[in-house]
Write a structure and sequence with these properties.
alpha+beta, Jelly Rolls, Arc Repressor Mutant, subunit A, 12 helices, 23% strand
Length: 282
Amino acid sequence: MKFMNNNLREYTDKFTDFSKKSISDFILYNCGIETCAPSHSYGPKRRDYHFIHFVKEGKGVLEIEDQKIAVHENQFFIVPANVISTYTADDLEPWKYSWIGFTGIESFNFVQALIHSAATNFVIDCSDATFYEKRIEEIMQLNQNSLSSYYRINGIMYDIVGTLLSECEVDLVNNRNSSPSFQAMQYMDLHYHDDIQISDIAYSVGIHPNYLSAMFKEELGITPKKYLTNLKINKAKKLLIESQDPINLVASSVGFSDALSFSKFFKKELGISPTDFRKDIH
């Protein structure tokens, strides 16, 4: 555990290299608990991981995407990876909050689902922010340098995520059922290992490919083609790092019929061949 001062306690996972964090399905990056001084501000800053703050006491303001959103006790605010944000404690009733930062291939889906379930996009009510603080406290009490603690820590994080989904269950279900974008994203998550095209994805949700692309970009900030590309690349990187599978098997595992087309795709996206990527990592 790292103690910055009497008002801030923070833990950052150093057990896993960041290159492996980004290709994990879902993994904790950091967490902490802080009692802020009046008017204490953090940002503007952009991070390469997602994070959620749970406000236990007091209030403050989140500035994100040209919005200023008031946040108070028993609310949490979400900031997606690579989005610039600033958050500032109230000058009379400064907030106390806990937070988790996380990343991984599946984390984008989780964050987007929560954001689209929120009435104010990035801020959502919760029944009891103390629950999340207690779970985060449990993480910081563990010995972070052992494999057993690594799994226990990420188990607690999954419990936090599951509780959040439970609190937002109705909105999330409605959002997924009503939005072709989320249905398309789910289809890609389940079929990325097949040789699917955007037309196949659009057909699966019953709309024209052009309409799907426009809607997907508007709702999720990325085109379905780019989402599928990122998904295949991240899954391929995971296999290249964590297995000794030959390149042709990695290729077929992410939807390519042969190693050559996969290698061209991989090098176009990352500027390095799959073979050289594996050598560099190892």
